[in-house]
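Final paragraph of the annual report: two paired records, presented back to back.
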Amino acid sequence: MTKTITFAILHFSVAFTVTYLLTGSVIIGGAIALIEPAINTVVFYFHEKVWKGIESRNALQSAAA
């Protein structure tokens, strides 16, 4: 859990810094830093589900061979 929390902090920091540097706006930087990582987290959850399915299928095919 510590690794997840530190990664989230890192992700929020990068999102804020990049957006702030591109726009010069603390408000836009803050908004993007909240929205983008939240959406990315949901997308990553489904990405992991798909990959687990692929890995399971490959393991079954290897076992059958």
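The closing record of the year follows.
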Amino acid sequence: MSIRSNRKEEHLALAQKFFDAKQKNSFDQMHLLRPALPESKAALATIKTSMFGKSVNAPFFINAMTGGSPKSLAINRTLGQIAGKTKIALALGSASILVKEPDQLASFYVAREANPDGVIIVNVNALTKPHDAQKIVTELAADALQIHLNTVQEIAMPEGDRDFYWLDNLKQIRQTVTVPIIIKEVGFGLDAASIRLLKESGFNLFDLAGSGGTNFAQIENARNNHDVSYLADIGLPTVIATMMAAREETDFIVSGGIRNPLDIFKGLCLGGKYVGIANTFLQAMQEHGSQYLLELIEGWQEELANLLAIYGQHDLEHLTELKQYYDLPLKSLIEQLL
């Protein structure tokens, strides 16, 4: 197994090791005012939407996890099958490995084979050459491309990059790639100034990936020969990152610490176009099996529709109108940063 493939396997093992299903995050400090008389009815039709020109059964999806190793091949095949059966989108893990190890293509393409008509999103790093990014999009028949920004992870990673002059290459990728592009953080949150700069450069869809879920500084610290654990706490909470994006008047995906349907609902109420879930789904599958994850996602679709009914909502379009209130620590952050 190559060094890159081995790192993919290590990431999977460490994501499982550090996963905490009950981990507290900023969603716990955000609340929504509920009408006692909602005048509504729970129906799965209320949560259906479209994504990159294709119909999906829910506004949440399986976010980027893995690819490029033997274990990830099996995972991506199963995730592709589940995404197809539940009719939700699937984002694959970083496929940048394919530039130097094209023989790993199958570990990603199995998802498209398992879900030929569904929404598949591919993922590359910010320094991927534009023609390589387009080649990966074409080979995987992708509906969209995620480009991840992971400076904190790179610094924590023993073999990580130290050169973060990325913007010019991002612009060249945008001019070359023929599918929609998502600029994605990896668990430390996209800030308003960066969103503004990227918007000025022609990007218009962002995956915020705030802190509160998988922590790649923690994961890379476990692979390091010196302590960089102090990096684990420098992320921007997901709720704050979401509020920043909303003020920039751009389309965005809410991710980072999504643990249940109520977190999804809150993310949509904050203005998210979609909500991405990664490690919660991955660990459900690894601990309990593929059938369990399939039933979990189907259950979440029903529960999200139930939440719309509880809060008197008949579709996804007006969720931002629900009154929000916050616990004092989060309210203080909002006052300081927004």
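Residues 3-19+40-337 form a domain with the TIM Barrel fold (CATH 3.20.20.70). This concludes the annual technical report; the extension proposal builds directly on these records.
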